[in-house]
What we know:
single chain, alpha+beta, Butyryl-CoA Dehydrogenase, subunit A, domain 3, Butyryl-CoA Dehydrogenase, subunit A, domain 2, four-stranded antiparallel beta sheet, three-stranded mixed beta sheet, 12% strand, globular
Amino acid sequence: MSIEMTTYEAALSALDGYVDQVHRVVAEATIKDGKVVPELADQHQRILHGYAWIISTSTALRVLLHWAESLQENGNYRSVEKLSVQIAFGEYLAQIVGGLSMGQNEVVRPADFGLTAQADDLANHIAIAELLSHGNTAKSRRALAEHCRDGVFANENLGDDFIDAARDQYHRFTNERIIPHAHKWHLDNALIPDQTVAELAAMGTFGICIPEEFGGLGLGKLAMSVVTEELSRGWIGAGSLGTRSEIAGELILLGGTAKQHAQWLPGIANGDVLPTAVFTEPDVGSDMGSLTTRAVKTETGWEIKGNKTWITHASRSDLMTLMARSNPDIKGYAGLSMFLVPKSRGTEEEAFPSKGLSGTEIEVLGYRGMREYELAFDGFPLEENALLGGAEGNGFKQLMKTFEGARIQTAARAVGVARRALELGLSYALDRKQFKRQLFDFPRVSDKIAMMAVDTLLARELTYFAAREKDKGQRCDIEAGMSKLLAARTAWTCADASLQIHGGNGYSLEYEISRVLCDARILNIFEGAGEIQAQVVARGLLMQRLST
């Protein structure tokens, strides 16, 4: 059954009315005197975060419809796209009116908001009812799965010749240089080879968003998302190599002095300088206002004292962007400063050769290739010009300006991981036979293939939407949070479904899906856990509506 665009538009209009009702319930529960009250937000956290999930899902559907309309206008709206859109609408409208997953064992339902009757009315709206009945059906899922079987997937072209060409280039590179080796690198807990890092540098990977005047490509977050997605499809470690350069480059570009720009940006852009982000501390987690690592003023500059943890790529890096408390008398964020900390690159024999710095590797399930460390700073010396921007107390504000880009990039990594899970699950379903039939022929296997394709597409388009908003120069913390929230869940869902298709073999370290599952799990934790993202999205939306 072909569903008209007007049906989707009418469904979204009806959904907007329901979302307004959810908003009113949450606002009445959490806002007093024009402000979100932290104690009330904590007390009503379930509906607050449920609000974020509902908005993120409805926004993703709206973005998907815009994508479909653009394809239709250009004559590229094929069967595979039509099926993907109708399944997405059918599935997620059903979840919104019935119960929307916020986690493996957490479902937010209309009753949580006291809106059961209103959800029933929404389900009975003529357009919603049509999509609930005819959107995500067994027939449509089978048809979409058959497209996947035949190598036909939803359109990836962005209409930008340069970015589309970059996708093709990185797609080939990933197939030829990452995928054949990634699983062995993972099992060996090996660093991504220097040769591979050099090849990525030569392609401009580390300078995508750095201006051309400093040797970068001068592109935006959309291009960065596409490159990250393609590399992460091969291995999240490869896709994540550029994350540290992205964060460091943006920190320095937005907060640094002209001298710091000239000193660091060219080396980051060409890959000569590999940065690492040194923010997290033991027992602190997301509460960055409680950081205790000290930057102590000396006659010649600074000394760093304290401990950091979960520092990615710390040994092989040349530059640390480090957050420390430069004024111990000022509590919270105001006492924090950001420092540009050069260090000697480590080796396998001596991971941390610099005086005053030692590190211990943290063994991890996945997300390998760069390695994680706990670092100890014991009077590590810095020159006076290491202070980012030359002024104290701005560290957290400077870091906040990079959160949007980092979260969009993490969403792109999640999309790449989800896509690889789909590829592996599909390949196994076609190659493996049970009871003299391809696994693919069993409906619950082909259903998984279809839903992986739909979920990956939905997460991809929401991520691109956030990237485009960032490229407009607008604040997009809400959009970035939405994209990471949805994409991280998608990566885990797809990896889990793909491993299920593999059966017992998927639990074997021999099979690549075992690595993909481990890699997918971290995406809902770093760069702001899912709970933090929901909080950011919900509070941002509440304040946004208050101001309009």
